Amino acid sequence: MRTLLRLVALAAGLTVALGSLASQAADPTFVGKLALLEDPQVAADLGLSDEVRVKVATLINDREREALELVAKIKSLPKAEQEAKLAPFVADSEKMGLALLTDEQQAKLEKLRISRMGMEILTDPAVAGALKLTDQQKADAAKAVADHKRTTANYNDLQKRAAKALLDKKLAALLTPEQKTAYEKIAGVAPGSSIAMAGAAAPAANSAPAGGAPPAGGEGATTIAVGPDGKLGFNFRFAPWKDVIDFFARQANLSLVTEEYPQGTFNYSDNKQYTVEEALDLLNSVLATKGYQLVRRERMLRLFNVDQGPIPQIFVETVDPKELDKRGRFEFLAVVFQVSRITPEEAEVEARKLIGPQGSVTMLSKARQIKVADIGENLRQIRQMIDSIEGKNDVPLGNERVTIIRLKNLLPAEFMTMVRQLTGIPDGQFATMD
User: Fold this and answer.
1) Dihedral (Cα; 116, 119, 124, 128), 10-degree rounding
2) Which is nearest to 179 in space by CA: 148, 134, 139?
3) CB crowding 138-164: b at 16 or more within 10 Å, else e
4) pLDDT, tens digit (0-9, with 9 covering 90-100), for 243-286
5) DSSP code, position 224
């Protein structure tokens, strides 16, 4: 964020006072892993003395001030080139900061960095080298992370945590058993726990450790209050997931069908009132981190363990593309998209780039359609992609309006030369996607 503020300020020709930015967290863009040292919990875990903490804070401030001159020089470059230019500066910053730590503290810091990043650390060249990732694995990991960042740009914290868990699972699936073992070793976690807990080093506010007991004085409380307007209020304190889902189904007047429940407990409370649809979306955003999905169809509510296989299409509601704006971000739905300017095969290829781990695409070539099943947020992105290709014209294929222009003083070739200049149609072509 501070990088953005500085770039904006520099672009506007303003002078940014470092003191005005000191209250914000350190920016790893300039100081790399040293940014973690400003976290009081990390400092405590490493056993940093007050003297060392002051030296680290001073170094970070000095390096960020020095970075401003470099940023001013590279601000017009593409992002990839900016990162390449900044890399030596970041490396020097880390070298200076690590010199203030003992060997043991440096090792702990690296493990904390890997643990906090979760499986996203696979895109780190050093870690990729240590795990001996293939070029294909590196490419797949980079694409997954890039797609994740683009998709979650406007998510709230709760939704980002859920999406991060899905990303970790997707990245973990790229590794061989030997690579998973190697990852657990460098991350300093117990064997077999890294994939399930990737990215969860800092406990999320909305969940508690699986099987964990509530703190003293807090017996597991399970409450869904129904307001006079029919909206639901949440108050869960270390409540077993079975109680949470059963309570929701009863209060929402839905018939629940399931053979199993997620392990662990749910800890969430706020003063907001939710519609049934909003409450379902909230639960699904958290259940995604557990590998489960609640699917509602009419008065039936089914809980699926998506780690054990895809959700059967028969239980998924098919909605019109225009209805997606009324549905939840994490609600699992199916949509049939009509295409005309591209082939169904091309639409299928593009749609597969945007679906999540549980998404599916079915091509209906003769009808020039594709059927996509996925969560609402991904479906909206696919709709936007198809709309951008098809154009905003709602005229059905075959019913387009055709205007005939009769030429008197121009040859068709001369007329097309002028039309191409006015409309941007490339030479030798007679139409554009617009």
Assistant:
1) 140
2) 134
3) bebbeebbebbeebbeebeeebebbbb
4) 889 888 888 888 999 988 988 888 777 778 888 888 899 899 88
5) E
Q: Position 314: which residue type?
A: I
Q: What is the identity of the amino acid at 360?
A: S
CB 425 within 8 A of CB 431: yes
Both structure tokens of 99? 């010199």
How many CB atoms neighbour CB 293 within 10 A?
A: 20
What does the DSSP 8-state code read for residue 265? E
How do beta strands 255-257 and 332-338 pair?
unpaired
Let me know how long the chain is: 434
Residue 265 CA to residue 206 CA, distance in Å, equals: 9
Highest-pLDDT range among 11-15, 206-210, 321-325: 321-325
Measure CA 27 to chain center. 20
224's tokens: 């869904």
> What are the Cα distances from residue 292, in Å, to 118, 121, 245, 308?
20, 25, 12, 10
Q: What are phi and psi of 209, to 5 degrees?
A: -55, 140
pTM of the model: 0.45
Domains of the chain: 1-101 (no CATH), 123-204 (no CATH), 221-293 (no CATH), 313-390 (3.30.1370.120), 404-434 (no CATH)
Q: How far apart are CA 425 and CA 173, in angstroms?
A: 45
Quote the pLDDT of residue 289.
82
Query: Residue 146: pLDDT above 90?
Result: no
